[in-house]
Write a structure and sequence with these properties.
The chain has a domain of 64 residues. Strands 1, 2, 3, 4, 5 and 6 form a 6-stranded antiparallel β-sheet that branches. By secondary structure, the chain is α+β, with helices and mostly antiparallel strands. The protein is built from 2 helices and 6 strands.
Length: 126
């Protein structure tokens, strides 16, 4: 015959259980911090992206220029004029790659769209 052990459990008073739930729901835990975007990208901005792409019919890994076509609260979509590839070797058919806003593989091109728009806004004197 085996010995059984009896454990007595004391019930928790209803008042203290209600306080625990109220205290727990009143707190907010933040597991993610807001992305500290180094650059604010806009649709139409010229950017450089570090990826696998074609240059002179050779596949290379390096910086290539592209245009921002969509901006999300977390991601940036960049479209290219030449073929680009995923890291596992597949070619991207629409030539659009998505990058997180905080990625180190995307950077603005100096003298891009903003410099061109300033030139367009100037009114020449006749």
């Amino acid at each position: 015959m085996s010995k059984t052990r009896v454990i007595q459990v004391q019930p928790v008073p209803a008042e203290s259980a209600g306080k625990t739930r109220a205290a727990r729901s009143g707190r907010q835990f933040s597991y993610m911090r807001a992305p500290g975007a180094e650059h604010a990208f806009e649709v139409g901005d010229n950017v450089e992206v570090f990826c696998d792409h074609e240059k002179n019919n050779d596949r290379i890994r390096g910086w290539i220029k592209g245009i921002v076509v969509q901006v999300d609260n977390k991601m940036v979509a960049v479209q290219f004029r030449s073929n680009v590839f995923l890291t596992d070797g597949w070619m991207v058919p629409d030539r659009i790659l998505w990058y997180p806003l905080t990625s180190e593989h995307i950077r603005p091109v100096s003298g891009g769209k903003k410099a061109a728009s300033k030139k367009e806004k100037e009114i020449p004197d006749y």
